[in-house]
Amino acid sequence: MSKKNRSIRVLVAGAGGFIGGHLVKYLHSLGFEQIRAVDIKPLSEWYQLDEQAENLQLDLSELANCRQATQDIDEVYNLAADMGGMGYIEKHKALCMLNVLINTHLLLAARDNQVKRFFYASSACVYNIDRQQSPDIQGLKENDAYPANPEDGYGWEKLFAERMCRHFSEDFGLETRVARFHNVYGPHGEYQGGREKAPAALIRKVLEAQKDSRKTIEIWGDGLQSRTFMYIDDCVKGIELIMHHEIKEPVNLGTSELVTINQLVGLIEDIAGVKLQRKYNLSAPKGVRGRSSDNTLLRQHLNWEPQTPLREGLRATYHWIASQMKSGVKT
Ligand code: NAD
Predict the structure, then answer these.
(1) 3-class DSSP state for residue 251?
(2) Does 219 map to a domain?
(3) How does residue 138 score in pLDDT terms, banded at 50, 70 and 90?
(4) Statement: residue 136 has pLDDT above 90
(5) How many separate domains does the chain show?
(6) Euclidean distance between CA atoms 8 and 51, whole angstroms
(7) Does some domain include residue 166?
(8) Residue 57 has pLDDT above 90, yes or no
(9) pLDDT for 329
(10) Which of 12, 55, 83, 242 to mutate to test the pocket of ligand 1 (most atoms within 8 A of CB)?
């Protein structure tokens, strides 16, 4: 544990959520001892609660709460957002765009409280949708975000917040870091209720189908749409590396292990030891046709990229969701 880590005062915004919860634990494991963890949800609903952190329930869309949260803080990790999988962001565009209040107020408060570094969790949804029309797409490079034509609602707000980070850095001298996450999955995330993303939703469906005599699974779209999926341990490692590196521009944080949704289902079936009949729901939300991460810039800067094989990460996630469903616990 380095002395430097012990003296840095950190805020994790959105700490009651999936990535934020893992990040608090990871930062502690690196020796960061002064961590303030904030989320709008009551502490009883946080996916993970780190007793060593200062845990606060605050609505960060309010400027006054952002000022309180950033008081005496050196580094802010902003993971707070109203979001979910494709089913959620396609139906709640206005709510997703209201994340602008969190991002704007947290930046203003960070500037005024002399925060030294500010990390912003952006998304692959900022990329121009015209470049994601084929399942065998090349990895998206950072400059593929422009000319701008991102995912409606959620993606536009993410792109706007990225630009705010850039201009707060240029105009006010606040050091900002922006990572564009590509589909993160792992234990201690949502797997039911409407906000869950494809890997967790499909694992849940495979588990449910095993109990059902019909042995069928519903897949959104035709199953040929392609994606990459990053395991949570790689995500939190990447966040910390990017935060403490001199990467001034937005950078991809994802894997380049491209699979179709059909292949993803096949991997989960292998782990479960079942073969299900597939029913395709062509009118369900399905997002872009193909999306993958080009990690050239990430490798150049960090000499590192996410490495957990999808099969391995899915196995850990499968067993966690299975245990939750068995015990009847939600998270
Ligand atoms: P999550 O929904 O699990 O966590 C977000 C947390 O933010 C939630 O606990 C929520 O209660 C909290 N929050 C919402 N509004 C708030 C407010 N007004 N004040 C305080 N807290 C508030 O989501 P996640 O998967 O952990 O995502 C974290 C960040 O990463 C988000 O910005 C998300 O857009 C981004 N991201 C995630 C993925 C992914 O695959 N999980 C992909 C791309 C980008």
Answers:
(1) strand
(2) no
(3) confident
(4) no
(5) 1
(6) 18
(7) yes
(8) yes
(9) 62
(10) 83
What does the pLDDT look like over 73-106, one tens digit per residue?
999 999 999 998 888 999 999 999 999 999 999 9
Q: How far is the CA of 81 from the centre of ligand 1 (A)?
A: 4
User: 94 alpha carbon to ligand 1 midpoint, in Å?
Assistant: 16
Q: Does the beta carbon of 228 sit less than 6 angstroms from any atom of ligand 1?
A: no
In-domain check, residue 322: no
**Buried residues in 260-278 as b, exposed as e (16+ CB within 10 A):** bbbebbebbbebbeeebeb
**CB-based contact 152:129 (threshold 8 Å):** no
Ligand 1 atom, smallest distance to 195 CA? 2
Cα–ligand 1 centroid distance for 83 (angstroms)? 6
Q: Which pLDDT tens digit goes with each residue over 281-330?
A: 999 887 888 888 999 999 999 999 999 999 999 999 999 999 999 987 65
Split at pLDDT 50, 70, 90, the class of 1 is: low
User: Which residues sit opposite 6 in a β-bridge?
Assistant: none
Cβ–Cβ under 8 Å, residues 169 and 115: no
> What's the CATH code of the domain at 42?
3.40.50.720
Q: Is the CB–ligand 1 distance for residue 252 below 6 Å?
A: no
Q: Ligand 1 within 6 A of 257 CB?
A: no
Asked whether 176 lines ligand 1 (CB < 6 A), one says no
* CA 101 to ligand 1: nearest atom: 18
pLDDT at 3 over 70: no
From CA 122, how far away is CA 110, in angstroms rounded? 18
pTM: 0.96
Q: How far apart are CA 143 and CA 251, in angstroms?
A: 10
Domain coverage including residue 31: 2-186+229-256+293-308
26, 47, 127, 154: which is the annotated catalytic residue? 154
Give the chain's end-to-end CA distance (angstroms, integer). 31
